[in-house]
Amino acid sequence: MSVYTAVKEVAYRKGKSIYRIEQDLGLSNGYISKWNKSMPGADKLKEVADYLGVTSAYILNIAKKGE
């Protein structure tokens, strides 16, 4: 599973959309969806994880388990 899919899963559980996350964090539209094909930078992943109330490691573990 990609990091994007893992973020989307956590966001869904928290009642947030990817669009809302990007807007609230000042990220460009579609920024997080790029994580479907590439690994995000640690700083941006942490920023998104903090916003969702989880750790970066938690998101990466979900992505790894889904492979």
Write a structural description:
The protein is an all-alpha fold. Helices cover 60% and strands 0% of the residues. It has helices at residues 3-13, 18-25, 42-52, 56-65. The chain is globular. The mean pLDDT is 95.
Radius of gyration: 10 Å
Query: What proportion of the residues is helical, as a percent range?
Result: 55-70%
Mean pLDDT: 95
The number of helical elements comes to 4
Oligomer: single chain
Largest sheet: none
Number of strands: 0
Structural class: mainly alpha
Residue ranges: pLDDT <50 for 5 or more in a row?
none
Strand content: under 5%
End-to-end separation in angstroms reads 5 Å
Q: Which series of helices and strands comes N to C?
A: HHHH
How does the overall form come out from the CA principal axes?
globular
What's the short story on this structure?
With 67 residues, this protein is mostly helical. It is built from four helices and no strands.
Please name the defining characteristics of this protein:
mainly alpha; 60% helix; globular; 67 residues
What's the layout of helices and strands?
Blueprint: H1 3-13, H2 18-25, H3 42-52, H4 56-65
